[in-house]
Amino acid sequence: MIYSELKLGRTFGIRFEHGKDFMTELEEFCRVNNIKQGYVPFFSGDFSEINIVGTCGKMENPQAPMLNSPAYFENVETFGCGTIAYDKETGKILPHFHISIGSRLNSATAHTSHFISGKVQFLIEMVFVEVLSPSMERITDENVFNLKLLDFI
C-alpha cells in the first residue's frame, strides 16, 4: 500500500459548458488557476460523445489494461471521480478518472470504466480539491504492465 497525508489547498466548484471538450477544459482550468495536482470527489452531468475503456472482443490477456481500446457512446448521463497528478517533464496534468455512464437512448443501460475523452452535453458539474503536498506523480511500475501509477513524492 502506498499512502500519504495530503495537505489541501483550494476547493473549486466547476461547471463545464455545453459542446466543450472535457479534458481540454480541465487542462485550461488547471493552467489558469496554476493547479498541478488534486482530486475530484465527484463530477456529474451529460456527455454527447464519450470514450471509455472497453471491448467486446477477446483479449490475449484479460488481466492487462486496455487503455488503447475505446468504447464509444452517445448521449449519456455520468458520474465519476478521480485524481490529477503532474508531469514535471512535460508540464502537463495527468488526470485519471473512472466513470459510470447510463445511455439515455438505450433504457439507461449502464457501463463503468476508465474515462478516456468526452464532449460535454448541457453541462458537467465538478468539485475539485487542490493538493498542495506531497507531490503527486505517476511513476511507471514495471511490475504492473508498465502503468503510470500514482505515487507521493
TrEMBL record:
Domain of life where this protein originates: Bacteria
Q: Which PROSITE patterns match?
A: PPC
Instruction: Give the residue spans that cross the bilayer.
Output: none
* Record Gene3D superfamilies: Hypothetical protein, similar to alpha- acetolactate decarboxylase, domain 2
User: InterPro entries given for it?
Assistant: PPC_dom
Taking the record's annotation, the residue ranges forming a coiled coil are none
Q: Where is the PPC domain?
A: 6-153
Q: What is this protein called?
A: PPC domain-containing protein
Q: From what organism does this protein derive?
A: Clostridium carboxidivorans P7
